[in-house]
Target: Phosphotransferase enzyme family protein
Amino acid sequence: MRLHDLSGGGEVLDRVALVARRALRRYEVSPDAEVSLLNVSENATFLVDDGGARSILRVHRHGYHPPEAIASELDWLTALREDGVVPTPAVVPARDGSRVLTVEDPGAAPRHCVMFEFVPGTEPAEDRLVEDFEPLGAITARMHAHARRWGRPAGFTRFHWDLPAAFGPAPRWGRWRDGAGIGREQREVLGRLELELRERLTRYGSGPDRYGLIHADLRLANLLVDGAGTTVIDFDDCGFGWYMYDFAAAVSFIEHRPEVPKMLDSWVRGYRTVLDLPGQDERELWTFVMLRRLLLVAWIGTHPVADIARELGAGYTEGTCVLADRYLTNSR
Model:
């Protein structure tokens, strides 16, 4: 097996590449399969090309999900596809039938690996953001409707995207105060934003009509569009959270763009073709956008080697302060 096009370098990435090669020995692929690193985010994702037969291998980071949580993710994305809700990539089992492999990582704890079928398609085009958010709203509503009625398997376990996960003593993506470019002025503005978010979301509540199983990362990079429709990929962050958070995740990293208000309107129109969307839920969509934005400030600070974190850095924090000022002014 040949490994090429590794970006980023470093000892950790070299070990992850070795884990990927070791994992492939347990799948039905030839020794000559080529393995290319596609991206590094929470996990490392590799393209496997076995003489033209392609698949995707995900090597998990340490400490993010235990095997039973990964299996629960796979249960939901499989149910969504088999129940005809939305296309998702099929899981490719290992030779012994395992969906989740645990593979030795030299010099560190073992890592978990999952293989998926390769799905053709490209991200939605940037010049069609407003138009594409209407079908995305409908897709999101179908997933929410499925989550509400689906009988989850015994042992199903995923984490929560709630206030403790965002701002508690051990926040999932770290403390936003440790983000890139955080100084006195940024702490003051974003501290006021955190207080406002806490108050509004506490009032909003987390009843079953507002809070449940969500994808939690429905951004454009996790949608593949081709002539057959839209496939939803990367359920690694799926868990229990506010349903409206899925809109916020969809505009991740582009929250500042002038098209976003029209994208929101399009998303709401699409959502309402499938499910009712009460006015109070619609009014809080910007609250969730700001919650997600503050979480991403923390994420960038704790993921300095991730491609997009290196690209955005402190500039994302400054942009968040601008949006926070606007949001806080409009919330009065």
Q: What stands out?
A: The chain has two domains: 2-117, 126-330. Residues 1-9 have pLDDT under 50 and may be disordered. The first helix runs from residue 11 to 24.
